[in-house]
């Protein structure tokens, strides 16, 4: 997540190469990326809520795998023993797909596949089936068995259509599409799939899920040290005004925008990058709700309305969270733990503690005041937080 000091770009400025070539600050996560790359060959998956920097992370990986070493001067990976070999990269952003049936979804996936082929100057025989076209693209680019697959918001086409009667045909289409990636270990050296939900419709079951790995928990999200190093200098005057009570100032910030834990064994809570960045961009004085985005929330409103009876705090088995398929929310036969699993995956509930006994129970709570104070949350979930 990045900020331009004069506010020209705001927070949707996520192209890594343009970012580095500008005067924008970059929160350096390349040491985590290097650790992940060292695990190759492999196919990985990570789920995080909206606003936690998934897209910027994939753009950063794209630049690394394209061998653009000069962009990383001064960053942690630059000093690592990395060969900076150039790889063919297939980057697919499913977040920009707007489809309400399988036919439209397949057409849009094909458009993206053919666009990538054109960019690399190769011709692939066109099929009406996107899985066939994807396999042909991988084979053409993978002569050296070093293709890199990066897929952003893999779950968005389905999450946006949870209550759509066409969902099953769309689910089947995406299942076949991701099966191609899983079966392409002969050509694909590294793959990372990101989204908001865990293993939706079992699309990414065969990928190594690093969502709760303690070693990668801080890849998405800002630590206290990162906030103070990269963001606080943008509003030095605000912090200087509170110099006599600086510790209290940071505690207030943490209570408003921090508190996120994605691993049972995570020691330090993280900040929501989107919210904390907007807070400092606006001078470090306005403790408003910055995470709320009606375009993001709209598909979930019918689900949020079903949550009557859920109570704070909640105990839930960790296996229930990682195995719950968000598409099951369209069902009328769900229990309280199902809804809590959804809220955790979306970032509305968070890990407070973990009982590592035979029951493997997580205690879930609201992460911070920002989430509690969101208007839509109060309207539909005022019964959730006592």
List the helices and strands and how they pair.
Elements: H1 16-20, H2 30-37, E1 42-47, H3 54-65, E2 89-93, H4 102-119, H5 130-141, E3 147-152, H6 156-159, H7 167-182, E4 188-195, E5 208-209, H8 224-231, H9 236-241, H10 246-257, H11 273-281, H12 294-297, H13 301-304, E6 314-317, H14 318-323, H15 336-346, E7 350-355, E8 361-365, H16 369-373, H17 375-381
Parallel strand pairs: 1-4, 1-5, 2-3, 3-4
Antiparallel strand pairs: 6-8, 7-8
Helix pairs in contact: 4-5, 4-7, 5-7
Structure description:
By secondary structure, this protein is of the alpha/beta class. The two termini are 32 Å apart. A five-stranded parallel beta sheet has the order 2-3-4-1-5. The chain has a three-stranded antiparallel beta sheet with strand order 6-8-7. Mean pLDDT is 84; it is low at 1-10 and 378-386. A hairpin with a 5-residue loop joins strand 7 (350-355) and strand 8. Helix 4 packs parallel to helix 5 (130-141), helix 4 (102-119) runs parallel beside helix 7 and helix 5 runs parallel beside helix 7. 38% of the residues lie in helices and 11% in strands.
Based on the model shown, name its key terms.
386 residues; alpha/beta; five-stranded parallel beta sheet; three-stranded antiparallel beta sheet; 8 strands; globular
Short description:
The protein is of the alpha/beta class.
Which shape, going by the Cα principal axes? Answer: globular
- Largest β sheet strand count, sense and barrel closure: 5 strands, parallel
Beta content:
5-15%
How many helices? The count is: 17
Quaternary structure of the protein: single chain
**Helix-strand string:** HHEHEHHEHHEEHHHHHHEHHEEHH
Radius of gyration over alpha carbons? 21 Å
User: Average pLDDT value?
Assistant: 84
Provide the structure class: alpha/beta
**Proportion of residues in helical segments:** 25-40%
């Amino acid at each position: 997540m990045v900020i331009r000091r004069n506010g020209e770009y705001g927070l949707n400025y996520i192209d890594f190469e343009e970012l580095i070539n500008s005067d924008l600050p970059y929160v350096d996560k390349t040491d985590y990326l290097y650790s992940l790359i060292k695990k190759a060959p492999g196919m990985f998956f990570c789920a995080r809520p909206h606003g936690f920097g998934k897209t910027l992370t994939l753009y950063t990986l794209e630049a690394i795998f394209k061998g653009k070493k000069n962009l990383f001067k001064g960053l942690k990976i630059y000093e690592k023993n990395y060969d900076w070999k150039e790889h063919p990269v297939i980057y697919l952003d499913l977040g920009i797909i707007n489809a309400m049936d399988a036919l439209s979804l397949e057409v849009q996936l094909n458009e993206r596949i053919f666009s990538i082929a054109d960019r690399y100057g190769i011709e692939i025989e066109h099929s009406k089936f996107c899985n066939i076209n994807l396999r042909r693209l991988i084979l053409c680019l993978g002569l050296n068995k070093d293709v890199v697959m990066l897929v952003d918001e893999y779950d968005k086409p389905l999450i946006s259509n949870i209550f759509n009667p066409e969902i099953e045909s769309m689910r089947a289409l995406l299942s076949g599409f991701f099966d191609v990636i899983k079966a392409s270990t002969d050509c694909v050296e590294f793959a990372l799939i990101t989204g908001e939900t865990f293993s939706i419709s079992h699309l990414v079951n065969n990928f190594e899920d690093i969502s709760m790995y303690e070693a990668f928990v801080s890849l998405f999200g800002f630590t206290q040290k990162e906030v103070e190093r990269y963001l606080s200098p943008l509003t030095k005057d605000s912090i200087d005004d509170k110099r006599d009570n600086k510790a209290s100032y940071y505690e207030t910030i943490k209570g408003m925008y921090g508190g996120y834990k994605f691993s049972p064994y995570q020691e330090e809570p993280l900040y929501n990058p989107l919210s904390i960045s907007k807070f400092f961009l606006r001078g470090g004085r306005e403790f408003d709700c910055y995470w709320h985005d009606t375009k993001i929330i709209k598909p979930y409103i019918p689900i949020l309305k079903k949550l009557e009876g859920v109570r704070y705090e909640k105990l839930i088995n960790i296996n229930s969270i990682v195995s719950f398929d968000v598409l099951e929310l369209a069902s009328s036969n769900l229990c309280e733990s199902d809804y809590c699993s959804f809220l955790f995956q979306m970032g509305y509930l968070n890990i407070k503690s973990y009982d590592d006994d035979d029951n493997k129970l997580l205690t879930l709570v609201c992460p911070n005041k920002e989430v509690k104070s969101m208007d839509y949350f109060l309207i539909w979930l005022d019964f959730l937080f006592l």
